[in-house]
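A quick aside before the break. I want you to see a complete sequence-to-structure record at least once, exactly as it would be stored in a machine-readable document. Don't worry about memorizing anything.
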Amino acid sequence: MTGSEGAAAHRVFISYSHDSDDHRRRVLELSNRLRRDGVDCWIDRYEQAPPEGWPNWMRRQIRDARFVLVVCTATYQRRVEGLEAPGRGYGVVWEGGLVTTTLYDAQGRNEKFIPVLFSSEDEKHIPDFLRGTTRYLLDSDEEYDALYARLTGQPLVEVPPLGPVRPVGVRVQAPAPLVEAPSTPAPPAKAPLAPEPSAGSPPLSTLVLVRSEFGTIFLQAERIEEREDGVELLLCPEGSWQVRYVERLYNAWDPTRKIAVAFKTTAHVGIVKSVAPLPVEDEKWKLVLEIVQPHYEYSTATRSADEFAVLRARRILLDEHAYGYADESAIRSVIGLGWTLDLKESPLPDLYTHLWEDPQHFLRSARLLAILYLRVAGTVEKVVQLNLFLRSDEASAEETLQVHFVGRRPANAATAPYEIRVNGRCPLPRMRRT
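That is the input. The structure line, written in tokens, reads:
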């Protein structure tokens, strides 16, 4: 990511109290470092006398920032909580009021304000309204990198390529690659979902999710070509089950059949124009789809299409269900991109029951499955950002899926919000670990 790209996408404002010259210096150094690293960070010291006045300047900074870093100290806490002596700390008191008002308007959902600390002693001075969110103690380069990754939407850990399943005595077979059961039984031996390429073969660069009436499967694609009206995939199935799945698409070819595919950060529903093995290649199949253009929108007298899209995104990513009967009907009964889809629940917890023993494989597969559902359900036109992390609670031995999502609605259909943002945790079923 270049500096200009980061500045355009990640504007940040730092809210802090002027405790001492040393504290002011550390805040300035943090802001300068973020700017050097491509983050459009602002603090009051970059301004001398804003023409609109300090109150309006602060309001605009907080309003326009994607993130607001709240530097927590005893002085800052005292001022934002209204405990400072009269006549002192007007700036922090004003900013604190803007922060709490923004959180109130968002009904307590915090997607903007991030507490940061320069000393572990200041953890007890995090304001009450920010105690439930992730904080960053900036006492090491590792912690700065963690904050920087969040500000720029980058994963902290790169997902390594998936290796082949190795036999271990009488160990139970690897989980099946299906999210949904196929219409006929799968062969007894299951192939790995995303195997490494064998020595000397071309690199398999892209994992593809294919959904059809025969089930949902993950395959590797050696090449993907996207055109304005279609997409061509060179699929490389490995193992008897994956080969049989593609052969069934071939043997049951129908010029009106629609399937859904997801790869990288997009998904499409398309009519199968052709599917055939390459005559000179071993176990490589060319699949050509004619893309079905999105057309689905739904609104009521009480909710706009964009509002329903937000609820649908939260159902898919967080498995939220706290909606009324009328909303529930609209969320579940969607046509999407010419595809009937019942959003009774999130597909991610069920995927976890198949892949929980391989967390990295689960995260990689869950990302594609979420993208497919978000696009097929007509929720977003473009997935701008989707980061998934597993969070473990050692006390309860439970895991949740931490989700950070930004999606863009179609420009010709969007009112407010134009961008959908979802941050939260999706509950996962408790699985027994040995």
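Two observations worth writing down. The mean pLDDT is 75. The first strand starts at residue 11 and ends at 15. We'll return to this after the break.
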